[in-house]
């Protein structure tokens, strides 16, 4: 459930009016994010325009959508310039005369060697915004942001490693805060929010190839079969068997994209003893067989990792 690599690599110092245009991610499984450290910004992404952001806000783009942050009349915004001398983060400024905004920018990377976080990003909305200043449950997140800001402001020996570790923790705290402020949660996040079901879900995520049964999953949560099945269906909107099947298919898709195992090996790695049964299940999920999926090699097409809603 965590990124394989996290980058925090750009620090922005802007004076109004300014405009920061992000072209979007170059591939699936890369989620850009921005931390508003000081001042304010207006976010435009897809059909959503004029979303107001304030200091303490964090915005993440799980599907890597192109977006724009700005303040004031962008038609007269001064061009952005790189500031030399900081070996830790790339610094951008525009020298604008108006109100100041400071932003930290980075990426969560889930696709490394064919891995995309078990379809996690596909389960999130296109834009995730957390208003940490207004969220009592986000105290840990606010403390982390303060430390990130301090390390970025005053680079010292070891600051690069510290920023890397802190940015990795940022994802977990960001998702926790988002779950706390959301009225409704999709799919696996709804199960994660139900503490009584976490042991079963974590088991399936860690070992989707295991021979899980309703009995063993219920036992991991210290529940009866009937109680576990009822709570799981209420939270996920799907049965444990349906969720397990989709997790297995997501893992199979990643292994096929990676291209290091034969189809029969992939079938065994995701818990299928019969290659024929695996082929049928994969085609039901993705619309094409495993061989055709691998040849297509298009992680952004209809064969991408599914969302469990």
Distance between the termini: 16 Å
Mean pLDDT: 83
- Report the β-strand fraction as a percent range: 15-25%
- Shape type: elongated
H/I helix tally: 11
**Residue windows where pLDDT falls under 50 for at least 5 positions:** 112-118, 298-309
The description of the largest β-sheet is: 7 strands, mixed
Helix content: 25-40%
Radius of gyration: 22 Å
- With strands numbered from the N-terminus, the spatial order across the biggest sheet is 8-9-1-10-3-6-13
Strand elements, count: 13
Structural class by SSE content:
alpha+beta
The string of secondary-structure elements, in order, is: EEEEEEEEEEEEHEHHHHHHHHHH
Give the assembly state of these chains: single chain
Description:
By secondary structure, the protein is α+β, with helices and mostly antiparallel strands. The protein has 11 helices and 13 strands. It is 39% helix and 23% strand. A 7-stranded mixed β-sheet has the order 8-9-1-10-3-6-13, with helices on one face. A 4-stranded antiparallel β-sheet has the order 2-7-4-5, with no helix packed on it. Strands 11-12 form a two-stranded antiparallel sheet. Helix 2 (139-153) packs antiparallel against helix 3 (159-181). The longest helix has 23 residues, at 159-181. The two termini are 16 Å apart.
